[in-house]
Specification:
The chain is built from 13 helices and no strands. With 464 residues, the chain is mainly alpha-helical. It has one domain. Helix 3 packs antiparallel against helix 4 and helix 11 packs antiparallel against helix 13. It is elongated and about 110 Å long. The model has no long low-confidence stretch (mean pLDDT 91).
């Protein structure tokens, strides 16, 4: 037993705490538990809200608009290619081109409406407005082109088409890219911000939960020493709830970070690269048509095709060793540094079961398409224009349109695989965070109530 301080000498804070009566200690424990439960609730809620907001931004606000933008871009490029196809072939070719043109017009209109409904950022409005305006003007030019062609004015029809394709490439496709960029920049920024903020989040919540747990255990040890009662049931339950809540919050926050990483980096980065590839490939296919149309701009369209292929892949026709690599399990580091472009971005981001085989099929299909493109140009240069036209827009299984269709189907298979994983992660992540947002306040209030109930019973004994 410590000696009492001499009369008239004030006690130090530590001495006053040690000599405080038991009821004061009990009230201190109760307030401490309340305070720690409140802080755990506030910090946990803030972290859950941040994680939920990040997944929502990635999954609902930006990703759909990015996909709309690229689907619009791909459909516009194919629409423009089929406008050119209308000028090239027979009456049957024109019917086929018109049918595809109309189908892609519907895709563009539908996706533009969806993009307009999903506006999140003010800077989305301008590119969407340009796309609506440009589509109307393009359709007017297409109607004039068809009119001139049907009247037999081939030169006039080609001139109008060239004006239309200039409108497409100078205003409409850049507007689709701008819509993509607004949303992708927002997605990247929100993702990086959340990853930075969430560093150490589990440790912070874990430490707060441990402090709450320690306060509850300390209170029970104190009661045992003072009252010789082995258990205070409400405090025991509060301790169990605190332990469970701490573990639940730590695991939920860790899972949310993992879900966000898989959704953004593993799945959506592939989706984005693939849809960009689709848009560029459709436009390259249009350059093939525009080359065959001839005229003074044919060489520039050939160069445009080559420039777009470089965006897709630095090696459009892989050699045997690279093809063999893609057909077997490989790591991102095994992809040669010389292999660049959107296809390479996907090959370095293989993550999900079945994705490797589907991506290899896509690369192989494009190589087949690029070979046929070479045949078309060689045939045209040899003066066999009708044969070049047939190879370019004919309906045969080994002709350009059919092979390009197989390539796009393979690309879409890879994109759809990643989209399913993306949607699943976003849905699971948001649902888990919504549940945690309901559990947290209930558990914090329960802990506080149990502490109040357990300690007040002892306080009443002292009051009596």
């Amino acid at each position: 037993m410590s000696a009492a301080a001499p009369a008239g000498v004030p006690l130090s804070l530590s001495e006053r705490v040690r000599q405080a009566p038991t009821p004061s200690w009990l009230r201190g424990f109760m307030r401490g538990v309340w305070g720690l439960a409140g802080v755990l609730f506030a910090v946990g809620a803030l972290m859950l809200y941040g994680a939920y907001g990040a997944i929502k931004t990635v999954g609902l606000d930006t990703a759909p608009s990015i996909i709309y933008a690229q689907q619009i871009s791909a459909a516009l490029a194919d629409l423009d290619a089929n406008a050119g196809n209308y000028l090239l072939g027979t009456r049957q070719n024109q019917l086929d081109a018109t049918k595809t043109f109309e189908a892609q017009r519907v895709v563009v209109t539908t996706q533009l409406i969806e993009a307009a409904k999903n506006i999140t950022y003010e800077s989305e409005r301008a590119p969407i407005g340009k796309l609506f305006d440009g589509l109307g003007r393009y359709l007017e030019l297409f109607a004039e082109m068809r009119y001139r062609k049907d009247l037999g004015d081939a030169a006039g029809a080609l001139g109008v088409y060239l004006n239309a394709t200039d409108l497409m490439h100078q205003q409409m496709l850049p507007a689709a890219d701008a819509l993509d960029k607004v949303n992708f920049d927002a997605m990247e920024s929100r993702y990086e911000e959340q990853q930075s903020r969430s560093e150490g989040a589990e440790a912070t919540v874990g430490l707060l939960a441990a402090a709450l747990l320690g306060a509850l255990i300390w209170a029970q040890v104190f009661l045992f020493r003072k009252t010789r009662r082995v258990l205070n049931l409400p405090l025991v339950v509060a301790t169990v709830v605190s332990l469970a809540l701490g573990g639940y919050l730590v695991s939920t926050i860790a899972a949310a970070r993992a879900d966000l990483k898989v959704a953004k980096k593993d799945a959506f980065d592939s989706i984005h690269a693939l849809w960009q590839a689709a848009s560029v490939a459709y436009d390259a296919n249009g350059d093939e048509t525009r080359y065959v149309l001839g005229g003074t701009r044919a060489p520039s369209f050939e160069q445009a095709y080559r420039d777009k292929v470089k965006k897709l892949t630095a090696i459009p026709q892989p050699d045997a060793s690279l093809s063999a690599l893609f057909k077997h399990n490989f790591t991102a580091g095994q992809v040669p540094a010389s292999y660049t472009g959107y296809f390479a971005d996907e090959m370095r981001n293989i993550t999900f079961p079945g994705e490797r085989a589907a991506a290899a099929k896509m690369v192989e299909a494009f190589a087949e398409y690029d070979k046929i493109d070479g045949k078309i140009r060689a045939t045209e240069r040899a003066g066999r224009h009708a044969d070049a036209v047939e190879l370019c827009i004919g309906g045969g299984d080994r002709q350009s349109n059919a092979v390009f269709g197989r390539f796009f189907a393979a690309l879409k298979e890879v994109a759809d695989l990643n989209r399913r994983e993306f949607d699943a992660r976003v849905s699971e992540g948001m649902r888990a965070l919504e549940v945690a947002g309901l559990v947290l306040p209930v558990a914090a209030l329960l802990i506080s109530f149990l502490a109040l109930f357990g300690i007040r019973r002892r306080l009443r004994e002292y009051a009596a």
